[in-house]
Automatic annotation (TrEMBL):
InterPro entries: Aldolase_TIM (IPR013785), Radical_SAM_PqqE_MftC-like (IPR050377), rSAM (IPR007197), rSAM_sf (IPR058240). The lineage of its organism: Bacteria, Bacillati, Bacillota, Clostridia, Eubacteriales. Pfam families: Radical_SAM. Gene3D superfamilies: Aldolase class I. It comes from Eubacterium callanderi. Residues 17-141 form the Radical SAM core domain. Keywords: Iron, Iron-sulfur, Metal-binding, S-adenosyl-L-methionine. It comes from the Bacteria. This is Radical SAM core domain-containing protein. The keyword Ribosomal protein does not apply.
Amino acid sequence: MNQRNPYLKHVKRLEFSVTHRCRSRCAHCALGPDRLDGELLPEDAAAALEAVDRACALESVLTFGGEPLLCVPTVCAVHQQAEDRSIPRRQLITSGCFTHDKALREHTADRLEASGVNEILLSVDAFHTEHLPIAEQYAFARALCEAGLGSVTVLHPTWLKGPESRDPYDAKTRACLRRFESLRLPVGVGNRVFPGGNARIYLADYFQRTPLDAGFQCGTAAYTERLDAPTSLAVDPDGSVRVCGFVIGNLHREAMADILGGYNPNRQPLMRALLEQGIPGLIAAARDCGIEVSPGDYDSPCALCRAAARQLK
């Protein structure tokens, strides 16, 4: 039974990237050109959530994208299921820019309030406002407040260097945040730009290239964890289920319970090599599978690993 899968006993979080569609093209976007087609259907997402919670007793659920509010029914289905199952933390990350229509904006805020979402992270920063109207973001934030969600809404900026930095991007982000002061919304810690996706292309001058750390081990750096002891799972718009960057199944081909029950990183050559021998082992195992990844082409071990994982058949 999947409840007894020793490799998943630490999983407490499930993340749904409900769509990769977005109205923006942010310079820092982690997706970059690697966007997937498809969108998660409400019933598929809700069923997947129920299966993972039964197996792992989830503590946290996240919906994001792309722009997740281009798929409001799926977002609401996830959070309603999470509330029904008493999962305590139910997060949404959004830019707030999904429609020009005031009535639809307000209706969406009401639907979110009814769904049970209890943490909304509104992405307000210099990167988003390069292509998205900050007035629209403000209007959605106000609609959230009017729908009774002001107490669970947090401004969620992405910083290039940090909130105290004098860099023009960070200075503009501080100015963006000031536009929201009348709503009295808290400003969260937010994120830092990392050299991947679009940032690797458009913000490359801000990052110093260093030789790839051959001694890197999963779980020793931010946003990483060991493949044999993950704390979270992810579901992509095309139905792919991932542990970190590795696809372990697809909801369109098999039930989530079966995906969970069959997970064993030691059966997958690249995963096993990464666990046992680190990055050098991964490169060698990838080559044996006909996948060529050159360390000099990547800014981080994670970027190299994701590139190899994407080429797996």
